[in-house]
Amino acid sequence: MAWEFIKAFAGSNKVKTLPQEPDQGPSEHPEPLSPGHQLQPFIDKISIVITPPDEEQAHLSYKAIMLMADEPEVFINAGPKTKWGKFNFAKRIPLTKSPARPLFQAELKAKKAVTIRLEFNPRKVGADGFVELQSILMCLIDYGWGSVIEHGKITRIDIAVDLPSTRPAAFAVLPQQALVTKDWAVNGKLETFAMGKPKGNQTVVYNKKKQRLAQKQPWDGPSVTRVERRLRNPPISSLKELPNLPNPFHAMTLVEMPDAPENEKQKWIWQLFKDAVTVRNLPAALALVPKERRTIYRAHLEKHQHQLWDPDAIWKSWPAALNELKMHILK
Question: Could you tell me the residue range of the domain that residue 282 belongs to?
Answer without folding.
Answer: 257-304
